[in-house]
Amino acid sequence: MALRPIIYRSCNFLIKTKPCLFCQTRQFLHQRRDIRPPQSSTFNLDGKNNGKELQRREYSAPGPKTPQAKRNAIDTQNRAKFFDLAKTEGLIVMSPKLADEIIADFLSEYGDGKGSGKTVLELAEKHRLKVTNITELALATSRIPTKGMPGLPQSHHQDISRMLLVACSKAKEPVATLHILTAVFRAPFDEAARNIANIFKPSEIQECRKELEELAYKEGYAEAMTLQGQFLEKEGKKKDAMKLYEEAMGMADIKLKNAPKEGPRIAMPLTPPWNILGNLLLANKDPTAQVRAKEVFKKGALEGDDPLAYYHLASFEEDKQSCNWLQYMSKAAASGHIDAMYQVAHFYLKSQAEEQGQKNVNPDLLEKDNTLTEALNWLNSRDRSMGPIALAIEWFEVAARGGHKPSMMTLVEYFRKSGKIEEALKHLNNVLKPPPKGQKEEWPDLVREAQIMLRHGLE
Hints:
Residues 33-70 are annotated as: Disordered. It comes from Zopfia rhizophila CBS 207.26. The protein is mainly α. The chain has helices spanning 6-9, 21-26, 67-88, 96-111, 116-126, 131-142, 157-170, 174-186, 191-197, 202-219, 222-234, 238-250, 273-283, 287-303, 307-315, 323-334, 338-351, 370-381, 388-401, 405-417, 421-432, 444-456. Helix 10 packs across helix 11 (222-234) and helix 11 packs antiparallel against helix 12 (238-250). It starts with 5 loop residues before the first helix and ends with a helix.
């Protein structure tokens, strides 16, 4: 079914016919049980004047009867609610009414065969918007909940979102191009990305690839250069990819220079060049490559404030109990890096003196870093609940909630030794839970160990 009239029909407009004199005067008669004033509205579905007019009388407008009409009515209601929420949350800049109007105008022009990129540019100019704002509208449209009902056609919101995004890409809007192709690149290993990528036609993806190449090679967008490098690397062109990553690094400052400064929050997340380039260099055991890898991660961490870069930068610290190591790893942990949480928790666990009940820092730390030692001693000088052990348990618990089974097993041992058997059993049962659907078990040895412990008991 053609998409062009969908928005119009869902607004309950009727085709016009020229009324007779009786019909023209009948609307002014008193209507029992209807105290609303008569209303009229005109709308031309095909944009052409056929010489036929229709008086719309709301009191006589029939409700939706066909399955498609019912679907259109549901979609209209869902759009109004979702766009209102999206406006409140700052996901779109226009009102729900204007958002619907833009979609309707776009579909009308799209159906008339005009270039979709040109249409988007005209709409942006007409409503004094940036093309990025229309990309935001397209992304929001893709998130409108689809209410599946037996006997009704599927919602067209995904198709509308697809057409708008492709049109924005053709209009040289970088966020649309990067969103589409990031989803395509990640589709083989990311279910969310796969769901996005699957709505686009192969021909549309090829068009977006051309736009990406222009952004990378002609416009110098660092994020486009990085994504283009990922595609080249996937195609086996590692040297060409490395060159693009290095160029992207050269154009990167605290935020990626010449790249979209603040993309829509619901767009696909982009990988910065330092993480990709750094990992490639880490795989090369040549000392020169290792030195360069540290430089790359340091730039990403200290200038880009990237948590993953902080995690890798910490790995270059030979002393795993130094102030620098703790600072870098804590940055990564605080940003949600699960293994970083585990590493920080172990740091605090080891920082406590081994002697039972002694509230001092481990003597091994005393000669290494006075600043760190003073901070840990301050923790111990407070109530026991504020000490390093308490911090360690907190980090282990946060990591465990994120599905990190080594942290769960550490908590099992800690609570077992503390005599809190019920708490230990809770974490032991969590170890036995299967991984999320579609994922392999990352720690099968720990699962077997947990099964044995459960059989023999924790007493």
